[in-house]
Amino acid sequence: MTQDPLTLYKLIILYMLDRVTFPLTKAQIGDFILGHDYTNFLTLQQVIAELIDTELIQAKSLRNRTYLEITEEGKNTLSYFGNRINDSIREDISSFFSDHEMEMRSESAIRGDYYKSTSGEYEARLLVKEKDVTVVDITLSVPDENTAAAICANWQTKSQTIYQYLISQLF
User: Fold this and answer.
1) CA atoms within 13 A on the CB side of 6
2) Long-range contacts for 121-125 (Cβ within 8 Å, ≥24 apart)?
3) Which tens digits make up the pLDDT trace of 20-65?
4) If residue 24 lies in a helix (H) or strand (E), which one and from where to where?
5) Alpha carbons within 13 A on the beta-carbon side of 149
6) DSSP helix/strand/coil, 16
7) Own/partner pairs for 109-116, CB < 8 Å, 24+ apart?
8) 27 neighbors 48 (Cβ within 8 angstroms)
9) Beta bridge partners of 133
10) DSSP type of residue 55
11) Predicted local confidence at residue 104, as pLDDT
12) Which residues contact 102 (CB under 8 A, 6 or more apart)?
């Protein structure tokens, strides 16, 4: 039986999301699928949109990143049809995770977002999550949007140093 390529791409995404304990970004999934030349960017976006529309995955956008997680319905679907993903693709996914899991986990666990508060200032909210536990949650009030954006951008690379500093100063 010949398999529809779009179905295979959907199953690959579900399989990837089911194999991790943290959300993956669209870019991370794209790195794998496009990097292995399974499909092109537009088709990948179509497949992700269809998975969201059918509620097999859920998407949460934060600034310029969209985080994807598998739903219970997605897990059920994967349990019925996951055997349609051949072993070589499963091995490619395992290898990809082995090579990139720490950086993907870090990218997913460290989040920064900002918004305009009711006082007219901007608030930068900085988070570090481990699985479903919030390890750090800091909100800084700043006078302008550029400063808030810069704080959020720097949080990605400096969060560990800042966390270690806070711990050393507070304990």
Assistant:
1) 9
2) 122/147, 122/148, 123/148, 124/148, 124/151, 124/152, 124/155
3) 888 888 989 999 999 999 999 999 999 999 999 999 999 988 766 7
4) strand 24-25
5) 5
6) helix
7) 109/22, 110/155, 110/156, 110/159, 111/62, 111/155, 112/63, 112/151, 112/152, 112/153, 112/155, 112/156, 113/62, 113/63, 113/152, 114/63, 114/145, 114/148, 114/149, 114/151, 114/152, 116/145
8) no
9) 130
10) T
11) 79
12) none
Q: How many CB atoms lie within 10 A of CB 5?
A: 12
Secondary structure of 57-118 as H, E, C letters: EEEEEECCEEEEEECHHHHHHHHHHHHHCCHHHHHHHHHHHHHHHHHHHHHHHEEEEEEECC
Hey, what are 109's tokens? 């666990």
Q: Per-residue pLDDT averaged across 10-25, rounded?
A: 92
Tokens 């704080």 correspond to what residue?
Answer: 151
Residues contacting 135, CB < 8 A, separation 6+: 128, 129, 163
